[in-house]
Amino acid sequence: MNIKAMRNVHLYLGVFFAPLLMFFLISGCWQTFNLHEASESGNYVPPAIIKSLSQVHKDQRWVDSNKRPHSSVPFRYLIVLMSIGVLVTTVLGIVMAFKYTKGWIVWVCLLMGAATPCFLLWIAYRSAN
To answer: Whole-angstrom Cα distance, residue 45 to residue 101?
Structure first.
């Protein structure tokens, strides 16, 4: 694949999936801190919209006080397509990074991007013992 075709695939997949990716990024952030669940003490009760959007993220269904539908199978397939699209655009982005910048910078960034989450998890694991 030539570089112009790679850039176009990267661009169009990225733009097509951007709204869905932003939704999953934002809702994943509040779920990381359990803001979609009420606290055990009752001091915090999440807004209804946060609870409903978290159901879309976790269970692929829109839930409100009146309806509790089953998971949307077509939505699940869309998420699979989005995941494949993100994988393809990521690989294309790495290929283009090697093509347009110094290879050692790309390798350092890739290594740091892989090592940083592992290191942070290792710190938390060690502090638990």
So the answer is: 48
Q: What is the pLDDT of residues 94-114, one digit of tens each?
A: 999 999 999 999 999 999 999
| Residue 19: closest CA among 8, 29, 27 | 27
Residue 50, amino acid: I
- Give the Cβ contact number of residue 85 at 10 Å: 19
Q: How many CB atoms lie within 10 A of CB 13?
A: 19
Taking a C-beta distance cutoff of 8 angstroms, is the pair 33, 27 a contact? no
> First-to-last CA distance in the chain?
50
**Lookup: tokens for 17:** 């999936």
Tokens representing 48 are: 């209804």
pLDDT computed for residue 129 by the predictor: 67
**Which DSSP category does 6 fall into?**
H
Q: Which of 72, 69, 85 shows the shortest CA–CA distance to 19?
A: 85
Distance CA 61, CA 79 (A): 13
